[in-house]
């Protein structure tokens, strides 16, 4: 499927003036009225004070690994580093064979195991048990929504064969 030319798109209010539309927005434009709410929904996770930027990016990288989403991995590796993730944490999030407890702090290890369980079981309530000691119910609910959003995004990007953009300047941290 061809990514539309950004010159033909009305992106008023979606991106700062002069910013070239990334490939994901250009392909999302094919969904008509769904583009703006979908983009706003994803961007809302960046403005959510319940989630740490570091853990949010580790979750996204883990989803990228589980779904084999090259786009999400390439776009979010620099964002993860800008959010304070170490190289070792990035590698641990992307390596599905790595011992998470040996590679990550307890909260991050529990959260990435939660990602594995949510994605692998399509939503088993028992998955919450491992993260409850580390996170509030509100945070768990929000991380669950984040996981689902990025799984859906990965499926969209892979199915429509959207190529990753060159790495952009990472967004500012909360």
Could you explain the architecture of this structure?
This protein is an all-alpha fold. It has a domain at 53-159: AhpD-like. The protein contains 8 helices and no strands. Helix 3 (53-67) packs across helix 8. The radius of gyration is 16 Å and the shape is globular. The N and C termini lie far apart (36 Å).
Arithmetic mean pLDDT: 91
Shape: globular
CATH superfamily of the domain at 53-159: AhpD-like
Assembly category: single chain
User: Could you say what the CATH architecture of the domain at 53-159 is?
Assistant: Up-down Bundle
Q: Which CATH C-level class of the domain at 53-159 is it?
A: Mainly Alpha
The helix-and-strand class reads mainly alpha
Secondary-structure element string:
HHHHHHHH
Overall helicity: 40-55%
Q: What is the CATH topology classification name of the domain at 53-159?
A: AhpD-like
Our estimate of the beta-strand percent is under 5%
Total number of beta strands: 0
Cα Rg: 16 Å
In short:
The protein has 174 residues and is mostly helical. The protein has helices spanning 23-28, 35-44, 53-67, 70-82, 87-94, 100-103, 106-121, 137-159.
Provide keyphrases for this structure.
174 residues; mainly alpha; AhpD-like
């Amino acid at each position: 499927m061809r990514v539309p030319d950004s010159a033909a798109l009305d992106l008023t209010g979606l991106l700062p003036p002069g910013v070239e539309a990334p490939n994901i927005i250009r392909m999302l434009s094919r969904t008509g009225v769904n583009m703006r709410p979908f983009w706003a929904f994803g961007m809302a996770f960046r403005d959510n004070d319940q989630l740490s930027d570091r853990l949010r990016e580790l979750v996204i990288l883990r989803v990228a690994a589980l779904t084999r989403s090259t786009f999400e991995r390439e776009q979010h590796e620099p964002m993860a580093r800008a959010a304070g993730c170490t190289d070792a944490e990035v590698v641990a999030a992307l390596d599905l064979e790595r011992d998470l407890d040996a590679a990550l702090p307890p909260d991050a290890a529990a959260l990435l195991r939660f990602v594995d369980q949510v994605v692998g079981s399509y939503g088993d309530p028992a998955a919450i048990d491992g993260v409850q000691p580390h996170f509030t119910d509100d945070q768990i609910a929000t991380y669950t929504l984040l996981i689902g959003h990025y799984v859906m995004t990965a499926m969209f990007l892979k199915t429509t064969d959207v190529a990753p953009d060159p790495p952009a300047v990472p967004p500012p941290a909360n």
